[in-house]
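Reposting from the mailing list since nobody answered there.

I have sequence plus structure tokens for a pair of proteins and want to know whether others read the tokens the same way I do. The first protein:
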Amino acid sequence: MLRTKTGRISLPTPRSLPGTGSPKRRYGSFFPGTPLPAVPVLRPTLWAFAATATIYLGCAAYDVRRDVQNAKKKGYFRDGTVGSYEDLEEAKRRGHTRHSAARAQPQSRWHPPGQLGAMMAGYSDAERLVLGAAALNIGLLGANYLAPAVFTQHFYRIPVFSPNYTLLTSAFGHNGLVHAGMNTFALLSLGPEVARSPTFEGNGSHFAAFYLSTAIFTSLGDQLATMLPTRTYRLNRFSMGMGASGVVMAMMGALFTMYPDAKVGIIFLPGSYPMQNVAAAFILFEMYGLFVGFPRLNLGHGAHLAGLAIGSAYVYFDGRKRIWRPARQLAFRCMKRLNGL
């Protein structure tokens, strides 16, 4: 499977951009010789944890509800109530819920327009989410050209100025067709492999929670990296960042941890290489880029390193058992008390 180096692009940004109009958010001003504005840390960090908890709990509640509905359709819980979470898990183990780690073989025939459901029937929920995220990246690129003022305000992130929610939205913004194309290509190459892995087992809700949360924390990592004593320390906090490459790097980190001895090919490079060697090369490249920098190569090295760390840690420490399962249990208890099951 081909891999590509993708970049979370950081561009020098003036206070306002041509064609963007007057921003609704007051950004303030900075003049050379005056003290540098501080990079916000506490508020975006608290927002990141709160948003991640909300995302995981929401996805878990949706997942539990669908499991219950499918189990009831198969003849379980005929009295209309689910006794306990363990009962629901037992129904899953006996094959009476929708999830399956195995991917069904897609039909080979051509599907005319209007039959999207039939065309997607051969893919797991998580794989469909990967395709949807790729389509969203390309679709928002078109929005960038149609409404640059709105897009710049809500999908670009400047560490010292931008509101907290851009930690998430900036992961879906791209500054051009090449940028969006490379990230989308990498997402389509890596995403299905990660989605089918034992960590996610084709579960779209789990994969969605991981994807969105990783987008938030890689953006936060990119923001915190602007405080490090790098060569461009004084300018990084004014750089504009966007892109899905932090999430792509998280998927790489997950694959590196799951299959360290597997060999992979890298686009534009001949041969194949062990994943553990590729991982070491990526880390060295990103560390050098973060602290020293590459001429005329503006990448979000902080977001990339955060993504590699998050993806590796999620697999190594078994995020499915330590994070996703407790989130499902909490969602089940809350929905049970609210009579939502």
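The second protein, same order (residues first, tokens after):
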Amino acid sequence: MKDNFEFRTRKSNWSLWVIECIDPNCSWRLRVSKIVLKSTKFVIQKYVGVHSCSLLNRNANHRQATYVVIGEQVVPQYAGVENGLGPKGVQTFARMKLGAQISYYEAWRGRKHAHTLIRGSPKQSFHVLSSYFHMLEKLNPETITRIEVDGESRFKYLFLAFGVAIRSFRYMRKVVGIDGTFLKGQYRGVLLVATTQDGNGQCYPLAWGIVDSENENVWTWFLTQLKEVIGNTDELALISNRAPNFAGYMTEISHRYPRVAEYLENKVGFEKWSWCHYPGLRYNITMTNMVESLNSMLVNVRNFLYVALLDVIQEKMSKWWNDRRIVAMAITTPLTPS
């Protein structure tokens, strides 16, 4: 392919593969066959590696430069990285390394095929999800996982809280921020996250969820799972941006629905929905910035399949916790580093 010589298949079956140069007068050919009939290994029986055809037969738009071949060749460019080459980068790779000119669409398909080879297909991702959670629970004591399915056993939601986060919550500030960010994979969805802060003011993720959309039923389900993780105490403060200017709506509510306004003010109480009236400790945390910083950390992997995305989350959280453990072990006073 790199020299732009094309070939055609002369014979192909379960035990024999014969290819030859596209020029019938050229001597280049390759013949391979199975070692034994029931084997999966092939052996080269004949190979003539010199082309005797004209150089005019060379074609940069190589017929063998399919998206499958391109995808297999660019796999190393994506292994161990979050983003890797884009379609234009794949086009450049094919031209420089393989000597093939491919279209943007073929490059996009090749990139997608490389992702499938590394991270599996969407069907495989859903199929191994329960096994993946089982191994997480086995290797991370006290980890809590949940998978919710519909009446036809199709995936709806998932919930994940690592055991180390659950055990450490007792030492964290009792302020929990919740938020969601849209995913960009084939099946879309929303990534939910609940996080708090440690004594050093650093983000400390508590739980993760993947759902189909943000609505009342979804948040009720997620918060129910979260309650099992962190419990429910009087000192706990929950911060969300789902209604960031709720207090500003009170004037309009008072005009349109005076009975609702009276209920919120007198029955529910200002402290339940107004930051300035909240009696507990919020440590000057009034927005979900700590959650949004986690979302920005994952901006390059929001198109990953669910299991691959959870793998990235696990890797990043493990690194965070290990780095902070090393810093904490070096502290000789009861005060935090900063």
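Reply #1 (J.P.):
I read it the same way you do. The CA atoms of residues 137 and 143 lie 5 Å apart.
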